[in-house]
Amino acid sequence: MSLKQSLGKVTIVDFWASWCGPCRKENPNVVAIYKELHAKGLNIVGVSLDKETGAWKEAIAKDGLTWTQVSNLKYWDEPIAKQYNVESIPATFILDATGKVVAQDLRGPELKAKILELLAK
């Protein structure tokens, strides 16, 4: 899976893990935004810092995360997290349609507002 496949769409790169309480608490908000705005051009890629396939897949199912999910199951040694210099989770990076990071670590209403702003361009 390559982020280049997402070019042309507003994309949230969402770093999370099944064991991360704040991540799981934010998931319903992200699910709602995705359901509302995916058809208008929003894409999300979830990157998990999990170590166990079972816990990771169970969290995806339980939280209703229907977008692309990736993980190398390497915990904090996740190569994608290192590429983005992620030092804590949840961590979100909002990319515009050209793939440029235009915002990060927005939650709730702020996240939705930024996505709506980018989709209106």
Automatic annotation (TrEMBL):
GO cellular component term of the entry, any: cell envelope
Keyword field: Cytochrome c-type biogenesis, Disulfide bond, Redox-active center
Domain Thioredoxin as annotated: residue spans: 1-121
Keyword Methyltransferase recorded: no
Entry's localization field: Cell envelope
Gene3D superfamilies for the chain: Glutaredoxin (3.40.30.10)
Lineage: superkingdom: Bacteria
GO biological process: cytochrome complex assembly
Name by which UniProt lists this protein: TlpA family protein disulfide reductase
Species of provenance: Flavobacterium cupreum
